[in-house]
Specification:
Layout: E1 3-6, E2 11-15, E3 19-26, E4 29-37, H1 45-48, E5 89-92, E6 102-110, E7 128-137, E8 142-151, E9 156-165, E10 171-183, E11 188-194, E12 202-207, E13 211-216, E14 226-234, E15 244-249, E16 255-261, E17 267-273, E18 280-282, E19 287-289, E20 293-298, H2 301-317, E21 330-332, H3 334-337, H4 343-355, E22 360-363, H5 391-401, E23 405-410, E24 414-416, H6 420-424, E25 443-445, H7 451-465, E26 472-475, H8 497-515, E27 520-523, H9 533-538, E28 541-543, H10 550-560, E29 569-573, H11 587-595, E30 598-601, H12 610-632, E31 634-639, E32 646-652, E33 658-665, E34 674-677, E35 687-690, E36 695-698, H13 699-705, E37 707-710, E38 717-724
Parallel strand pairs: 21-22, 21-30, 22-23, 23-26, 26-27, 27-28, 28-29, 29-30
Antiparallel strand pairs: 1-2, 2-3, 3-4, 5-10, 6-7, 7-8, 8-9, 9-19, 9-20, 10-17, 10-18, 11-12, 11-14, 13-16, 14-15, 15-20, 16-17, 24-25, 31-32, 32-33, 33-38, 34-37, 35-36, 35-38
The structure holds (2R,3S,4R,5S)-2-(hydroxymethyl)piperidine-3,4,5-triol (DGJ).
Length: 725
């Protein structure tokens, strides 16, 4: 059993194959005992808990509890119970009372319940076991249930928190984080993924200092700027060595995550819905459940942490039937035509792409309403017949005739002022209680906290998706929230709007993905502005970034791979000079970068030279041959572009028989030194052979000595394919 309760010692032990997480009951409080490499043997709380009563530390209800919470590692710290550190929960009773949570019981069961209205990890009774620990504020009858689900084989624990108002009055939940973990030490670096539009998820590492080191989103989406992921790496930890404790949020809206170091050099790590502009009125009998946090501990650095996440996403987060299937190679017309296309142009593009092996064409923005630029028509999801006289159905049929799949772009959460929909329903716009509403990319946001709006979107998209043979949908979203209010919601609940919007979005996605299980959905938010586990639950791949420049993509895809697997990252070959950065890179390098994710094209193949077409044809054939290794194998990062002038990856099939090595030189210098790529994860004694480069070496030589490389040319890349012989 992966969860054990020792009644005598009052300890909960949560074990995965390689890790242990331990919680104890001290007095009436729940304390955090341990998180790390798996431990065995019996112990008591007193054996491992160094408690001293410190000056200035207060004690709550000395009659029943001899300890100061400020001096203890708390399992779920509540504001108002003598722990002035960053709390996980704050409840406003409106009468001056504070939440005082006492331990009142637990249950353990096999399997895991779905979180109501939210995406969450899933698994069978053999794969996951759940512990629910009940804490109660007896004065007010508020029950807080801490949920821990243990995926033993995966080395993953997930956490979420449920609040039940069993009292007789409304209560206001001002803050409810999903996970909080206290450590007795502070010698950590915090690693996070930061960026901007077209520069998403660059790796940032900072030493913790006294006080709070926090990342958050206040934009209504998980954001381009900061991804809902943090890791605390014990100082000295690297890609392959050392302790790393990490959290990733299964949520697509405003979040907060961070680590606070206190005056005793203790660290509190946390993650949850951002309390900024949030509160939730919980009436008697009602329940609020927080989104889930995925917690991964690695004793072998960041690389192992990433591989745990990658397996977990493939097995227990992405619910689409495509999550474990090889996906089609697509061409998207966006950078090829932007808004300037018609049926004839699209058919020509599709035919040419088909000739070189592409399997699907995706029609991007501009096919509906009067949309010829970004200034109008969002909301009017009917076809523009001057561009597509035979409608979507007519176009899809012609694509089908050339034996290609057809996909379509939508941006359903948005509305343009210049649209028929806005004329009919100006009150459906988020922010419409404000005197002025800001525009972002000329558009407003539909108020998804209003169920009528959600039903409208579901109906209009259901009509579209069933009107033609549509195999794929790209779901875009191109602005941040600013005026976060809703005409539909009562005035005293306006701070619920940002979360209710996300619940509305999840309701729409739940309904549509259930109704159209054969459609492959790809998420997008101006590129990677909503690249998170919440979206991946519904859509097994996401357009990683609007930047298609091969070199910038090395950084973006490297950072993204810290958490998210290669098969979740849309990666397309585009033209040079690149449309976003103006940089020119070779076709080989552009292909090699796209091979690291969900390979596709984003260029006008009609305008490609014969030489470029020949490279593309070979690249596509190669991807078809190798995609199972990239999409379902193990990924090792061998060299970081953030720490050097090059970037390298290794993918290895689960049976260890096929190894792909990618190396990219970003900048060279005169007389460069030799770089040695030390491969990882191979069979020591097996012999591996790369036929193209005629290299035959044992696993141990490839791992210990490595392959020598001379990075002699800017933007040059190479790929090696070793097979076990
Ligand atoms: C932003 C997306 O990221 C692009 O790929 C493209 O679909 C545009 N929107 C279309 O407006």
């Amino acid at each position: 059993m992966s969860i054990i309760y020792d009644d005598k010692e009052k300890i909960f032990l949560i074990n995965t194959i390689e890790t242990t997480y331990a919680i104890g009951i001290m007095g009436q409080y729940l304390v955090h005992l341990y998180w790390g490499k798996r431990i065995s043997g019996k112990f008591s709380i007193n054996d491992i808990m160094p408690y001293v009563s410190r000056p200035y530390a207060s004690i709550f209800r000395k009659d029943v509890n001899p300890y100061s919470n400020e001096c203890l590692p708390m399992e779920y710290p509540a504001f108002g119970s003598c722990d002035p550190r960053y709390p996980a929960i704050e409840i406003d009773y409106g009468d001056g009372n504070f939440l005082n949570l006492e331990y009142t019981g637990y249950i353990i069961y096999r399997g895991k319940h779905k979180i109501d209205s939210l995406p969450s990890s899933f698994g069978t009774e053999n794969e996951v076991t759940t512990l629910e620990i009940e804490l109660t504020d007896k004065t007010k009858n508020t029950q807080v249930v801490l949920m821990y689900s243990v995926f033993e084989e995966m080395n993953v624990i997930t956490r979420s928190v449920k609040i039940n108002n069993l009292g007789t009055e409304d209560i206001i939940v001002d803050k409810v984080l999903s996970a909080s973990v206290d450590f007795f030490e502070n010698d950590f670096q915090m690693i996070s993924l930061s960026g901007a539009w077209a520069r998403e998820r660059h790796i940032e590492k900072i030493d913790l200092h006294h006080g709070n080191t926090m990342i958050e989103s206040r934009r209504g989406a998980s954001s381009h700027q900061l991804n809902p992921f943090i890791a605390l790496a014990r100082k000295g930890a690297t890609e392959t060595y050392g302790d790393v404790f990490s959290m990733n949020f299964v949520y697509s809206g405003n979040f907060v995550a961070g680590a606070e170091v206190d005056h005793y050099q203790m660290t509190r790590m946390y993650m949850g819905i951002n309390p900024f502009n949030f509160s939730w009125k919980l009436s008697p009998g009602k329940v609020f459940q927080s989104p889930e946090v995925i917690m991964v501990y690695s004793d072998e650095g960041l690389g192992k942490m990433s591989r745990v996440y990658h397996d977990f996403f493939r097995e227990h987060i992405c619910k689409s039937k495509y999550s474990k299937k090889v996906r089609p190679i697509l061409i998207n017309n966006w950078e090829a035509t932007y808004y300037d296309f018609n049926e004839e142009k699209l058919i020509k593009l599709a035919k040419k792409a088909k000739e070189i092996g592409v399997e699907m064409i995706v029609l991007d923005d501009g096919w509906f309403g009067e949309r010829n630029d970004p200034s109008s028509s969002l909301g009017d999801w009917y076809v523009n017949k001057s561009k597509l006289p035979n409608g979507i159905d007519g176009l899809a049929k012609k694509i089908d005739e050339i034996d290609m799949k057809f996909g379509i772009w939508v941006e359903p959460e948005m509305i343009s002022e210049k649209s028929v929909l806005f004329g009919k329903h100006p009150d459906w716009v988020m922010g419409s209680c404000s005197e002025y509403i800001s525009e972002g990319r000329n558009q407003y946001i539909l108020d998804l906290s209003n169920p009528e709006v959600c039903e409208y979107i579901i109906d209009v998209l259901s009509d579209l998706f069933s009107s033609a043979k549509i195999s794929y949908v790209k779901w875009d979203m191109n602005r941040s929230m600013n005026e976060v209010n809703s005409r539909y919601i009562d005035n005293d609940r306006q701070k619920e709007v940002a979360h209710r919007y996300i619940l509305g979005l999840y309701y729409i996605l739940d309904t549509l993905t259930e109704r159209f299980p054969n459609i492959l959905f790809e998420g997008c938010a101006g590129g990677g502005g909503r690249f998170d586990a919440g979206m991946l639950y519904y859509m097994p791949q996401i357009w990683t970034s609007d930047c298609t420049d091969a070199i910038e993509r090395l950084y973006i895809q490297y950072g993204t791979s810290l958490v998210y697997p290669a098969l979740s990252m849309g990666a397309h070959v585009s033209v040079v000079p690149n449309h976003q950065l103006g940089r020119t890179t070779s076709i080989e390098t552009r292909i090699n970068v796209a091979l690291l994710g969900q390979f596709g094209l984003e260029l006008d193949v009609e305008k490609c030279s014969d030489e470029e077409l020949s490279h593309l044809r070979k690249g596509i054939a190669k991807y078809k041959e190798l995609r199972e290794i990239i999409q379902f194998g193990d990924m090792y990062r061998l060299c970081s572009p953030f720490d050097s002038n090059s970037a390298s990856w290794e993918f290895i099939s689960k049976d260890k028989k096929d190894i792909l090595v990618f190396n990219f030189c970003i900048f060279t210098n005169a007389n460069p030194k030799f770089s040695f790529l030390h491969l990882q994860g191979l069979e020591e004694d097996a012999i591996y052979y790369d036929e193209e480069h005629n290299i035959k070496l044992s696993g141990s030589v490839l791992m210990r000595n490595g392959i020598s490389l001379l990075n002699t040319e800017d933007y040059k890349s190479e790929m090696l394919h070793f097979k076990m012989i």
